[in-house]
Specification:
Layout (H helix, E strand, L loop, with lengths): L2 H25 L5 H15 L4 E8 L4 E8 L9 E4 L5 H8 L3 E3 L12 H5 L4 E7 L8 E7 L7 H61 L4 H27 L4 E3 H11 L10 E8 L3 E3 H21 L5 E11 L4 E8 L15 H10 L3 E6 L3 E8 L9
Parallel strand pairs: 8-10
Antiparallel strand pairs: 1-2, 1-6, 2-3, 4-5, 5-6, 7-9, 10-11, 11-13, 12-13
Length: about 400
């Protein structure tokens, strides 16, 4: 071998090794199997200096080889059956023998049965290697095709065999990822259906309690049942929010509180008159448990204002939410311009005991000031994995 020929061989080997490395990096980043196979066909054709390459997948039921992906072919070739998995085609021979098959000239009486597109593309030489499988029967066959006589050497076979092995791993990984995505999608659908059923059941229970409260014979019973109804409907609002944003480990507290403020006036056990409820909030994502607790706090304190702050049935209730990223905390304020409220914080009157327990559950603190009006300020931590929107 001359020095120039040796140099060309070394250059070719280095180019093929670089192609193997590049494809391996690409294949294990990419999740779309069609893109992986198409890129494999492109690289193989370029690395062997031929215009055509195809990847055939074995189909056990039909016992044939389907062109799953390719490079250089006219429209209509990829996606069609190229041959039966037997000795009548180069691909079939490689598949059944599990050995590379080199055909320098398709016209030299190889007793082959070839589809018309070989002739239409002027294919003269082919080389096939088996694409193995990670467990089970081989995936299929990798074939490169040339319209001119082409002498393939041992280096070409080694390159294609190594490429086919990497491709087998990539196919197995892509199939596992696809199976996992399918399983996760099924689980997501089941979870959403469960959320839907829970939401509907909570709304049904809340509605039943509200109807019962309206028919109660005394104010104490009516107020007690009305309070339970509001708490149930507050939980139902959580599921409305979940159904709106999909499955997630966090929920935007802003969206939930805004939705809650719209529904709370309709959940009171008496007309709210000219009392307005206004919500001003920043986007802060929190775990479901924290959102549930804070939603119940808002419902209890806003209901207290509706029920006790406005003897003349006229006034303003404001709910505001502000985050402090630097201190990893946020403050929730519920205030009204009513007659004021002074209560011993050790008592459980008017839901204060429940509010204290809910705030303690999320590691928060609460302060109340009164006259004029009443102002409740709840300060709570925002976990590092819960992000406030810009």
């Amino acid at each position: 071998m001359s020095d120039s020929s040796s140099d060309r061989t070394v250059e070719k080997l280095l180019r093929q090794q670089a192609a193997l490395a590049a494809f391996g990096s690409f294949a294990f980043r990419e999740t779309d199997l069609e893109k992986i196979l198409t890129e494999a066909a492109r690289i193989c054709a370029a690395s062997l200096d031929v215009p055509f390459c195809k990847i055939c997948r074995y189909r056990a039921v039909e016992d044939d080889l389907l062109i799953e992906a390719g490079w250089g072919w006219k429209v209509g070739v990829v996606g069609r059956v190229v041959s039966q998995a037997n000795e009548t085609s180069p691909q079939g021979r490689a598949y059944v023998s599990r050995e590379p098959v080199i055909i320098r000239s398709l016209q030299e009486g190889n007793n082959l049965s070839l589809p018309d597109f070989y002739k239409q593309h002027g294919i003269v030489s082919t080389v096939d290697v088996v694409i193995p499988s990670v467990g089970g029967a081989p995936y299929g066959v990798l074939e490169v095709d040339s319209p001119v006589l082409h002498n393939y050497d041992v280096h070409d076979i080694n390159f294609l065999t190594g490429f086919a092995n990497i491709l087998a791993e990539a196919v197995a990984s892509a199939n596992k990822n696809a199976a996992m995505r399918s399983l996760l999608a099924q689980q997501k659908l089941l979870a959403e259906e469960l959320q839907h059923r829970v939401r509907n059941n909570l709304q049904m229970v809340g509605g039943m309690l509200a109807n019962y409260a309206r028919t109660a014979s005394d104010d104490t019973t009516r107020q007690g049942i009305g309070s339970m109804s509001r708490r149930v409907m507050t939980l139902a609002q959580i599921y409305d929010s979940l159904l709106g944003v999909g499955l997630s480990d966090t929920i935007d507290l802003k969206e939930y509180i805004q939705a809650l403020c719209i529904s709370l006036p309709t959940l009171q056990d008496r007309p709210v008159g000219k009392v307005a409820l206004v919500c001003q909030a920043e986007s802060i994502r929190l775990p479901l448990d924290s959102v549930t607790s804070l939603g119940m706090v808002v419902a209890e304190l806003v209901t207290n204002s509706f029920a006790h702050a406005f003897p003349d049935h006229s006034g303003l209730i404001t709910v505001s939410l502000v985050g402090d990223r630097a201190l990893a905390r946020a403050s929730l304020t519920i205030e009204d311009d009513g007659v004021g409220f002074v209560a011993d914080m050790k008592t459980s009157r008017r839901g204060v005991g429940l509010v204290k327990r809910l705030i303690a559950q999320i590691g928060g603190t609460m302060e109340v000031t009164s006259v004029p009006g009443t102002r409740w300020v709840v300060v709570f931590p925002v976990p590092s994995n819960a992000k406030a929107a810009a």
